[in-house]
Amino acid sequence: MDRLILLRHGKAEPDSESGEDFDRRLAPRGVQESAEMGARLADMGFQPQVALVSPAARAKATWESAQAAFPNAETRFLDHLYHADSETIRRAAEEAGASVATVMMVGHNPGMQELTIRLLQEGAAPSGLIAKAQRNFPTAAAAVFLFDSNGRPQFDGLFYPDR
158 forms bridges with which residues in the sheet? Predict the structure, then answer.
């Protein structure tokens, strides 16, 4: 894996018809921001070969909204990404990254934010950038990292939705 894109799901509705967190859908703002973030990332040249997506309704809908910007990306829904911790997200990315250059992960906080912070720290990013990610990693936010031949991360972008 040469590049990892972390995309937090878009703004979700507070409740689902079933009452289950897993079934919460995107709010209209979440649909719009997810599509806009996908287009923004694609405009900057970020093109995943594979997207690993939590099967929760809001994560699936985030990917569906963003996917138009990534027409050649293979989609894989992985049950263990639902509310996954940062290590689970990283392992899944590394496994997929053994055979492709760019991996996108679509999932949930706190795991996405924690992995963003950890990769920023490992890559010796500026302290102000780390502090920004620690303060806030909002819905539809994305973090992008490059990896060298030894697997060390380097910050390549931190993007928040326009609000």
Answer: 143
Neighbours of 18 (CB within 10 A): 10
Torsion angle of the four alpha carbons 11, 142, 95, 12, in this order, in degrees rounded to the nearest 10: 0
pTM: 0.97
Instruction: Decide if 72 contacts 49 (C-beta within 8 A).
Output: yes
Q: Are strands 142-147 and 153-159 parallel, antiparallel or unpaired?
A: antiparallel
Range of the domain at 103: 3-159
Per-residue pLDDT 10s for the chain (163 aa) are: 999 999 999 999 999 999 999 999 999 999 999 999 999 999 999 999 999 999 999 999 999 999 999 999 999 999 999 999 999 999 999 999 999 999 999 999 999 999 999 999 999 999 999 999 999 999 999 999 999 999 999 999 999 998 7
Please tell me the total count of domains within the chain: 1
The CATH number of residue 106's host domain is 3.40.50.1240
Q: Which residue, among 2, 3, 7, has the nearest Cα to 112 in the 3D structure?
A: 7
For residue 83, which phi and psi values (nearest 5 degrees)? 55, 35
Helical packing angle, 127-135 and 111-122, nearest 10°: 170
